[in-house]
Design brief:
- The chain is mostly beta strands.
- The protein has one domain: SO1590-like (AOC barrel-like, Beta Barrel).
- Helices cover 9% and strands 71% of the residues.
- The protein has 1 helix and 9 strands; from the N terminus they run αβββββββββ.
- It has one helix at residues 2-14; strands at 17-35, 38-51, 53-65, 72-84, 87-100, 103-110, 116-117, 122-131, 134-143.
- Strands 1, 2, 3, 4, 5, 6, 7, 8 and 9 form a 9-stranded antiparallel sheet that branches.
- A hairpin with a 6-residue loop joins β3 (53-65) and β4 (72-84).
- It is elongated, with a radius of gyration of 18 Å.
Length: 145
């Protein structure tokens, strides 16, 4: 009986989950170093999430912008605290991205083994989209028992 319960729990944990919603973001510049050809910046980010994820995010970002408008790159580390599909806890995200003209690349991953509380064992991806000025997220994740 115990083996059957463990097998069921393991199968459920391996099942991918899909979570979507919106978030508000506030970016605050901390430092800026302008030089010939590039600008290096450090910023703090505060987020409020709604939808399948209800909570807050706090991040530190490092960014570099090039000499042409629209050319930039960034990295950031963020801690999210809240409730995801009924599971309360926290987890960390790592961001990296760049843009040049119309090209944009952004990758956000859940930091392995960063989940706490009911989100211990959380793994997956976190996609960000901006449509008509609104920030949207799409999470594809698994949650270990």
């Amino acid at each position: 009986m115990l083996a059957a319960l463990l097998a069921t729990a393991t199968a459920l944990a391996a099942t991918p989950h899909h979570a979507v919603g919106t978030f508000e973001v506030k970016i605050t510049p901390v430092t800026e170093d302008k030089s010939d050809g590039s600008t290096l910046s450090r910023l703090t980010i505060d987020k409020t999430f709604a939808g399948a994820l209800v909570g807050t995010g706090k991040a530190e970002m490092l960014a570099a912008s090039g000499s042409k408008p629209g050319s930039a790159a960034y990295v950031a580390v963020e801690r999210v605290t809240g409730t995801l599909d009924g599971h309360k806890g926290s987890f960390a995200l790592v961001h990296n991205g760049w843009m040049q003209g119309d090209k944009r690349v952004m990758e956000v991953l859940i930091v392995p083994d960063s989940g706490g509380g009911d989100l211990k064992g959380l793994a997956g991806t976190f996609k960000i989209e901006i449509k008509d000025g609104q920030h949207l997220y799409v999470m594809d994740y698994t949650l270990e028992p």
